[in-house]
Amino acid sequence: MTDPVATLTGERRPARSGKRERLIAAACETIHAQGVEKTTLADIAAAAGVPLGNVYYYFKTKDALLQAVIETHLAGQRSTLAAIDDAHDEPGDRLKTLFGALAAQGELIARHGCPHGSLCMELDKRAEGPGLAAELVRVPLDWTERQFRALGRQDARDLAVQLIARYQGTALLTSTLRDPDLMVAEGRRVAQWIDDLAPVT
Amino acid sequence: MTDPVATLTGERRPARSGKRERLIAAACETIHAQGVEKTTLADIAAAAGVPLGNVYYYFKTKDALLQAVIETHLAGQRSTLAAIDDAHDEPGDRLKTLFGALAAQGELIARHGCPHGSLCMELDKRAEGPGLAAELVRVPLDWTERQFRALGRQDARDLAVQLIARYQGTALLTSTLRDPDLMVAEGRRVAQWIDDLAPVT
DNA sequence: GTCTATAGCCAGATAGAC
DNA sequence: GTCTATCTGGCTATAGAC
Known about the structure:
Chain A is mainly α. Chain A has eleven helices and no strands. Residues about 1-5 of chain A have low confidence and may be disordered.
């Protein structure tokens, strides 16, 4: 029935032309730039170079494509965090690496905000609630909590909430005021804060 | 030409039935709950108890109504801040009063997020940019900066950015995770932080 | 000033030829 | 699998009676 290799790699059956992947990538970008509600399937199809009608071969509804976008973001987050775990042993280094990388996205955030935060905020307003999108904050939140716990902090959860909140809040100011420097300055402060919490021994 | 009294009080000419005000109030609530793009004029008209067609007597376009909503939020912010200025002389007390009041909105924020922050984020994604909505963060930001400056802090602007960012970021986590306690806990931490920065003399 | 009816447009989704 | 043409519904905005 299903191609075992494709199943293992998480691919769908045909997958020759990569249109499905192009559609998801285009949807990620367009939705980040314009928001979920303002982005039409025609926008996404055009950005992906796929005829409108063909979109429905890959995704039954606009919402199905949106779910795929969220899952793609989640997979990206997980692999980023796993890579940081592999590259660094010290929890303090891991935290600084993650938030340094986020701060380096200042220009992107100044233009369209944090892709995950804005998705959460928009989907929050749906009757069904944020659904899977809430994982976009829970995944980094839980990871951050784990790092603080590894540092021996009893208040690891609170610290994690503070850290993610600082990033998300700064991202909102950065995009509203169109000032990437806010993100850079916050990155420096966060690094200092982590050093104060986890002194080099 | 214009009624001088109505002009002084900022009212429009007729203003007998208060429909204009009801429409703006309904728009504020509905937009906060559903977002700008998902909210239709029919939603707003129904919430205000006004027939759809009549909306256009008061507002030429949906966007004109949206601008009125933003201006109403701004006027509310300014009067809140002015009231705090009047009620407290110490900048530290003023800051704690404002952020205590924000933290007390936990339930509301858990349901739909910060009304100003979500408006900014959504309007950021328009081609024209956030426009007037950016004032919704600039006004409290500038006020907060003034308080820190009155406390003698040279880094008043940075501290103000941090404080507003903490509030906005916590609001995003509060609504995404549907947990009003996050807001309460952050309120306590902010009060402590301000006390540490501005020790009672 | 108020309200009904509706025009005009554009989005999501489908049908069906290739 | 691919793509054109089109249906259907809902939204902004207007016309025009009262």
